[in-house]
């Protein structure tokens, strides 16, 4: 049985790679469809037909789009993301520090959100239909309906502007100690965790409720298995699949879907970089960001799928 | 960060004393309103407000403007011409670049000539093309021959795009200029860190270091100031002025020559019938725009582009009045009344959406239908600006009237928003540039303003007043006509009370 896992996982990786290619082509095609190009944002209001023409030529934007794509792809295969059309810097150099920042923020948020939501979800399922369960449900539904910019802006207003407890900006450059890290990251991490929390709690609760009402759990309970052992050993392994998928989906949004949080806390991450790049039609940077987001998404969902496959009841047979 | 106060006992001067000597030391954190990965250190390409700040921090021009737009020599010791066509520039002695190299004529020739190379993507390509030849005539002497006489050439050289860089500079990962700060760190879209240039040739700077970031999100920028994360912010929203002042923060109002204008293209069927432009000018309620769009932070415009503070402003022109009855009469006579006229506005042109709505409302009351079309800021300047027959623009101040006239109203200008063509105006512009007599030039500029008001299709309802907010310990800021943040040049003047200790 275990041997069957390998081709399954292999096939999963192959489809992931295929989606990656599709995304890269799609993103290039869509950015080509946008009106205007990078020369417009470099020259702005001062553009004249001659200067636009000359700059387009020097940026190779006058070449046909398919050729530009092939050249870009060729560079990518050599590990070269190309250079930004705006400032001529290598895209990799612009991306690296921001990716580091984004991963830090996403990691910290995940570290807070995942355990808390698992705990809340499982306990809510165990004490189903009690006052506690209702409280958790109302709280999570409430959180999922409040946009993140409201949470973040309110937090800044209360903790930074009024109480002066925390900095309003997450100035990553000034972080040298753990205390500074906690102070700078508390608000963005808490805002992000609150938004991602809700979905994970709901999914975990639903999956656990399903499993807990299965006949085999009832059987185990009748046989006298204690509540903790019942949940952790008997029920949880069978709820892992949907829970892991919910977690993966929530986490993948932590990288690219945090534009608002980055804007509110002036935090230099990848999401803001991509928005900037799209606005300025800086295609190589857009491509690199899209690639990173897509890769993160694929890695997370593929991992979740593998975990699901590996924990299917049939496969766990000794 | 502890500062070094070289002012001795004066470092403790209480803030109530009106004139205090600047104190050295401290770290200043500044947040601009626009910033992205398009930020650059290449003087030729500077185009955003934060770019201009960097330009003034790290570089110097041959000349500089003061807060009343008067030109002074900077890196140039003298700048002279007999015929206003051939200009002789003698450079200041003992100026060094940040890498230690002395400033020489070759640096100036390189810095100015590169604007004419199309692939540089220079913002001032059109102005640079008026410099026919640029050559060194000695180690400290440069001769520039223009294509036509221009008395305002020294003002052109004060634009930060024409800042001087080291001969042969091809990359701009960092800045090697002569300016008051050296570039310690520059990450486009993230932050810029400047350290005091101890070898700076001029007065100042006073603070030890300046950290410049951009916070495009308006609320976040104000919060950063209010919570003490930054000391100075650009572009305070007039709606938040009361909050900023109630928190004990300072507000600097700069009477800049920026304006949002409504241009009617005279080459479209729309404007062929007479009276439309005048009718729209009559419909604009400038006082209402000042009060409700700019919340009082603007000055009334009179459909000509010279700001009221300028010594060249023609105050004898009859002020534009809000006259719906006359507008109705003109529109009826022109056969427009009741016809649907599309009007394009966008957040890209400051305040234009609100002005459009006010105009629409005023028009509706006399039975005229204006179809307001609000388009996104993204791509506005290339897709809509000057293409729509009836739409808004936003014009930044330029250091001399001739430059404003040249850009927006000369027949040959690619940025002639209303496509107004008047050979007499072009001839007067050329004459004004070729005359040294200030009184004669003032006369010409005055007449030209009358011609713009009477003939062009551009309506200028207001000049916007720029607002910057600062923490109580920030000193040395003065409003300037040259632009926000002291004409983007606050870095060398600003100081911190108590040295920022």
Automatic annotation (TrEMBL), chain A:
Domain annotation ABC transmembrane type-1: ranges: 99-304
Membrane topology according to the record: Multi-pass membrane protein
Keyword vocabulary terms for this entry: Cell membrane, Membrane, Transmembrane, Transmembrane helix, Transport
Transmembrane segments: 12-34, 103-126, 138-160, 180-198, 246-270, 290-312
The organism's place on the tree of life at top rank: Bacteria
Pfam families membership: BPD_transp_1 (PF00528), BPD_transp_1_N (PF19300)
Signal peptide segment: none
Location of this chain's protein in the cell: Cell membrane
InterPro entries tied to this protein: BPD_transp_1_N (IPR045621), MetI-like (IPR000515), MetI-like_sf (IPR035906)
PANTHER family in the cross-refs: DIPEPTIDE TRANSPORT SYSTEM PERMEASE PROTEIN DPPB-RELATED, PEPTIDE ABC TRANSPORTER PERMEASE PROTEIN
Similarity comment text for this entry: Belongs to the binding-protein-dependent transport system permease family.
The protein's name in its UniProt record: ABC transporter permease
Organism of origin: Nguyenibacter vanlangensis
UniProtKB/TrEMBL annotation, chain B:
Domain Solute-binding protein family: 71-397
Signal sequence bounds: none
Domain of life (superkingdom): Bacteria
Chief place where the protein resides: periplasm
Keywords tagged on the record: Signal, Transport
Protein family according to the UniProt entry: Belongs to the bacterial solute-binding protein 5 family.
Protein name (record): ABC transporter substrate-binding protein
Organism ancestry: Bacteria, Pseudomonadati, Pseudomonadota, Alphaproteobacteria, Acetobacterales
């Amino acid at each position: 049985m275990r041997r069957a896992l390998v081709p399954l996982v292999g096939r999963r990786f192959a489809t992931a790679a295929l989606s990656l290619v599709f995304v890269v082509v799609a993103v290039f095609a869509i950015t080509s469809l946008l009106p205007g190009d990078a020369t417009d944002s470099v020259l702005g209001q001062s553009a004249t037909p001659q200067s636009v023409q000359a700059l387009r030529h020097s940026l190779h934007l006058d070449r046909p789009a398919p050729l530009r794509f092939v050249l870009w792809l060729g560079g990518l295969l050599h590990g070269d993301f190309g250079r930004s059309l705006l400032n001529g810097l290598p895209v990799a150099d612009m991306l690296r520090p921001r990716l580091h920042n984004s991963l830090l923020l996403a990691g910290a948020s995940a570290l807070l959100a995942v355990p808390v939501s698992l705990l809340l979800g499982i306990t809510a399922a165990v004490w189903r239909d009690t006052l506690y369960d209702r409280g958790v449900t109302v709280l999570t539904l409430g959180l999922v309906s409040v946009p993140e910019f409201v949470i973040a802006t309110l937090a800044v207003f209360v903790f930074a502007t009024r109480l002066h407890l925390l900095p309003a900006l997450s100035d990553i450059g000034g972080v040298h100690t753990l205390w500074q890290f906690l102070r700078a990251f508390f608000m963005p991490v808490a805002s992000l965790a609150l938004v991602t929390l809700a979905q994970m709690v709901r999914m975990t609760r639903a999956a656990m409720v399903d499993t807990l009402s299965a006949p085999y759990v009832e059987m185990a309970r009748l046989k006298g298995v204690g509540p903790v052992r019942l949940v952790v050993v008997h029920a949880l392994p069978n709820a892992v699949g949907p829970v892991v998928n919910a977690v993966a989906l929530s986490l993948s949004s932590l990288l690219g879907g945090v534009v608002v949080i980055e804007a509110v806390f002036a935090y230099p991450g990848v999401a803001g970089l991509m928005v900037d790049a799209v606005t300025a039609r800086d295609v190589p940077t857009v491509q690199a960001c899209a690639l990173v987001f897509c890769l993160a998404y694929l890695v997370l969902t593929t991992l979740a799928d593998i975990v699901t496959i590996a924990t299917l009841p049939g496969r766990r047979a000794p | 960060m502890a500062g070094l106060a070289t002012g001795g006992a004066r470092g403790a001067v209480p803030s109530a004393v009106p004139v205090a000597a600047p104190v050295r030391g401290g770290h200043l954190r500044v947040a601009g309103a626009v910033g992205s990965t398009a930020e650059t250190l290449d003087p030729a390409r500077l185009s955003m407000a934060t770019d201009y700040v960097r330009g003034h921090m790290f570089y110097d021009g041959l000349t500089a403007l003061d807060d009343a737009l008067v030109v002074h020599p900077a890196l140039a010791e003298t700048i002279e011409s007999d015929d206003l066509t051939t200009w002789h520039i003698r450079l200041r002695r003992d100026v060094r670049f940040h890498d230690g190299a002395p400033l020489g004529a070759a640096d100036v020739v390189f810095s100015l000539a590169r604007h004419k190379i199309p692939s540089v993507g220079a913002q001032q390509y059109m102005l640079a093309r008026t410099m026919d030849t640029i050559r060194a005539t000695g180690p400290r002497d440069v001769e520039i021959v223009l294509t036509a006489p221009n008395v305002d050439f020294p003002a052109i050289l004060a634009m930060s795009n024409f800042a001087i860089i080291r001969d042969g500079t091809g990359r701009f990962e960092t800045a090697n200029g002569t300016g008051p700060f050296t570039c310690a760190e520059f990450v486009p879209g993230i932050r810029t860190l400047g350290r005091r240039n101890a070898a700076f040739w001029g007065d100042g700077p006073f603070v030890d270091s300046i950290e410049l970031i951009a916070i495009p999100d308006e609320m976040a920028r104000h919060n950063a100031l209010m919570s003490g994360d930054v000391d100075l912010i650009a572009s305070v929203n007039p709606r938040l002025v009361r909050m900023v002042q109630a928190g004990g923060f300072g507000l600097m109002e700069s009477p800049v020559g920026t304006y949002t204008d409504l241009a009617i293209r005279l080459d479209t069927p729309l404007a062929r019938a007479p009276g439309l432009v005048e009718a729209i000018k009559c419909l604009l309620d400038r006082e209402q725009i000042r009060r409700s769009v700019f919340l009082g932070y603007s000055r009334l415009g009179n459909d000509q582009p010279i700001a009221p503070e300028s010594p060249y402003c023609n105050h004898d022109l009859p002020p534009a009045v809000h006259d719906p009855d006359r507008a109705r009469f003109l529109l009826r006579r022109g056969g427009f009344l009741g016809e649907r006229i599309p009007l394009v506005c966008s957040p890209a042109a400051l305040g234009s959406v609100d002005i459009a709505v006010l105009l629409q409302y005023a028009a509706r009351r006399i039975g005229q239908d204006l179809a307001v079309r609000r388009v996104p800021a993204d791509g506005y300047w290339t897709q809509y600006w000057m293409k729509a027959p009836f739409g808004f623009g936003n014009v930044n101040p330029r250091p001399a009237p001739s430059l404003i006239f040249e850009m927006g109203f000369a027949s040959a200008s690619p940025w002639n928003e209303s496509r107004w063509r008047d050979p007499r105006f072009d001839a007067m512009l050329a004459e004004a540039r070729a005359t040294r007599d200030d009184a004669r030039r003032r006369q010409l500029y005055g007449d030209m303003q009358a011609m713009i008001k009477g003939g062009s299709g551009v309506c200028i309802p207001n000049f916007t007043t720029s607002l910057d907010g600062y923490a109580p310990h920030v000193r040395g800021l003065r409003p300037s006509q040259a632009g926000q943040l002291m004409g983007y040049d606050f870095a060398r003047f600003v100081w911190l009370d108590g040295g920022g200790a």
